[in-house]
Design goal:
CATH topology of the largest domain: Rossmann fold
Largest sheet: 8 strands, mixed
CATH superfamily of the largest domain: HAD superfamily/HAD-like
Shape: globular
Distance between the termini: 16 Å
Number of strands: 12
Number of helices: 8
Radius of gyration: 18 Å
CATH architecture of the largest domain: 3-Layer(aba) Sandwich
Oligomer: single chain
Structural class: alpha/beta
């Protein structure tokens, strides 16, 4: 890996945010980006060999506020937003999203320790502190409430969250492929992620430098780091190797 990185003329560094660069919190609004992370990202985006992007389920405007690093590229809402510009949904899809949100609030809102985050084009159903029985009941309710819309939506499994997104939203893997088509062919790619929403990216980047952050388990990533702190040290080392 070191030889490949050092010898490349251009490198794509694509990074998930929650659980990868920052520790997960009880509520996503409690997450803060530590100063050392901002510093290393600021250094990396200035390196002429690097294209650096955050690939996240969060909205781009939220990521910009949390990081505040000039020069970063952003793929938000699992590829639905690129640098703040949302994908345009068909009129029928937009109507279905509005109806689905109302149903989700009505049917899932009463479950203890389950709360719904409105992301505009999608919703996230968080259950980090819910009991196993509550999670099972909420999962069953979610499956039932999506039935009227057939295949209009898909459920992305994150870390203690279900992301309900229209099928028109491409997902992280498709968004990453689109970004790479705009970069020099054959460049090395480093992708770091921590949960099920990143596994599709690991799968399409089989020959690249893919890193799973978090507890060990079945993964398509080629490498493993235990914590966001380890990920930060990896990025610091990457910057050192390139200088």
């Amino acid at each position: 890996m070191r030889v490949r990185v050092r010898s490349a003329d251009r490198i794509a560094l694509l990074l998930d945010f929650d659980g990868t660069l920052v520790n997960l919190q009880r509520h996503p609004g409690d997450v803060r980006a530590p100063a050392p992370l901002k510093h290393v990202l600021s250094c990396l985006v200035q390196h002429p060999k690097l294209f650096v992007a955050i690939v996240s389920g969060r909205r781009v405007r939220v990521l910009r506020r949390l990081l505040g690093v000039k020069g970063l590229h952003y793929l938000g809402l699992h590829g639905a937003e690129r640098s703040g510009e949302p994908v345009a949904l068909a009129k029928g899809t937009a109507t279905a999203v509005s109806q689905m949100k109302r149903s989700a609030v009505a049917q899932l809102g009463a479950f203890p320790e389950v709360w719904i985050e409105n992301k505009g084009l999608s919703i996230a159903v968080h259950y980090r502190n819910a009991s196993p029985a509550t999670i099972r009941a909420a999962r069953e309710t979610l499956s039932r409430l999506l039935i009227p819309w057939g295949a209009a939506f898909r459920v992305l499994k994150g870390s203690c969250v279900w992301e309900i997104v229209p099928r028109e939203i491409p997902g992280k893997a498709a968004a990453v492929r689109k970004v790479l088509r705009g970069l020099p062919a054959g460049i090395p790619v480093v992708y770091m992620g921590d949960d099920g929403t990143d596994e599709a990216v690991f799968a399409v980047l089989r020959e690249q430098i893919t890193v799973r952050v978090g507890r060990r388990g079945v993964t398509r990533a080629r490498y493993y780091l235990r914590t966001p702190g380890d990920a930060l040290r990896f990025l610091e080392r990457l910057g050192t190797e390139l200088c």
